Amino acid sequence: MNEPARKARVAGFALFTLFLTAVFVALGVWQLQRRTAKHELIAALTERLAAPPTALPPSAQWPALNPARDEFRRVSFTATYAALPDAMVYSSGSAVRKDASGPGTWAFLPARLPSGETVAIDAGFVENTMQDRDVEDRAVKKLVTGQPMAFTGYLRFPEAPSWLTPAENRDRRLWFVRDHLGIASALGWGAVAPFYIDLEQPAPANGIPRPGPLEVNLKDDHLQYAVTWFTLAGAVLIAFAVWARGRRQS
């Protein structure tokens, strides 16, 4: 190979090496940024989950609520479960409930506030591995007494389905994403609050459905991923240096 062609090949390979290095370094920096954001989220959630409950915001304030600021806020209020169809939402396991790490369903019921508005309540976990409608019916039947109850729980906002999320089964009143707005529309609950309540207490005497406190349990592997990307960037540079040295000696 003549000298101009050899130099052109080395230059081309050098540009490709610099491109790969830049990509790997950018991915490493991105993982460090995600790590910082994750730590801020964990700190915020830890603070909200540990805070004493406050009164449920009045309906006039509901439009101003948003997930970034209000998700997982602990609230207390009084409401009465409505005699309307409930929904069960499939769960393969919860990232914030260690006592609900396996498959089952969440029991979603509407409840009326003393002021007349309706709030959707995730009343707790049912170990319903087959998503059996009868199992859910037996679990929630005793909750609807027509009597007001004192609730404590967490503000949560509806989940958006992904393209992999199965469609709901309305005959079984079974959903695969916690979209309480869609559930309310399908089951005739009427207008509901833009959030739902992830119930902490009270729990039924037999513990079914099983409400409970939430815990922060978010994965934080971003530093490991960042080190991997930076290592790949260094490996690419070293490989190019070894190759270029060999070309000069040949």
UniProtKB/TrEMBL annotation:
Q: Which InterPro entries match?
A: Surf1/Shy1, Surf1/Surf4
CDD domains attached to this UniProt entry: SURF1
Similarity field: Belongs to the SURF1 family.
Question: Transmembrane stretches, by residue range?
Answer: 12-30, 180-197, 223-244
| Keyword annotations from UniProtKB, A to Z | Cell membrane, Membrane, Transmembrane, Transmembrane helix
- Give the UniProt subcellular location, in the record's own words: Cell membrane; Membrane
**An example Gene Ontology cellular component term from the record?**
plasma membrane
Tell me the protein's name: SURF1-like protein
Pfam families from the entry? SURF1 (PF02104)
Superkingdom field: Bacteria
Q: How does it sit in the membrane?
A: Multi-pass membrane protein
PROSITE patterns (UniProt xref): SURF1
